[in-house]
Amino acid sequence: MIATFDSEPGLVVITLGDGPTAVESIDPHPRAIVAIDAFGNTVQVEISAIADGVEEPLCAVAEHAHNSGRQVDLNLLLAAAGAAVAAPDQIVSVWFGQDAV
After folding, report:
1. How far apart are CA 83 and CA 94, in angstroms?
2. In terms of DSSP bridges, do strands 2-6 and 11-15 run parallel, antiparallel, or are they unpaired?
């Protein structure tokens, strides 16, 4: 997962892997745009107006995905967004694995 926070417009972009190209986009929240591939998978999430927080729009993204039969892990999105905001104007690569022991 790659996340960036462009501080000038206040925009977080989270790219979920390097897979297929997006073929459509949806707006599950006024501050969230989700890019979807041809298989219905979420490939990118954009959150604007970061000063207003990321949790509400990311919750809407995860809820919309769940209601559409797709899986998007809210905790992973929140972690990626948090890492991006902590390192503004840089590219943050976030790797997640299964249960750590």
Report:
1. 8
2. antiparallel
Backbone angles phi, psi at 17, to 5 degrees: 85, 180
Counting beta carbons within 10 angstroms of the beta carbon of residue 7, is it exposed (0 to 12), middle (13 to 18) or buried (19 or more)? Answer: exposed
pTM: 0.89
State how far the Cα of 70 lies from the Cα of 64, in Å rounded to an integer: 8
CA 86 to chain centre: 15
Tell me the per-residue pLDDT of 13-52, one tens digit each, with 9 for 90 and over.
Answer: 999 877 678 899 999 999 999 999 988 888 999 999 998 9
Rg of the chain over all Cα atoms, to the nearest angstrom: 13
Residue type present at position 51: A
Mean pLDDT, the chain, as a whole number? Answer: 90
Q: Which residues face 48 on adjacent strands?
A: none
Phi/psi of residue 16, nearest 5 degrees: -95, 85
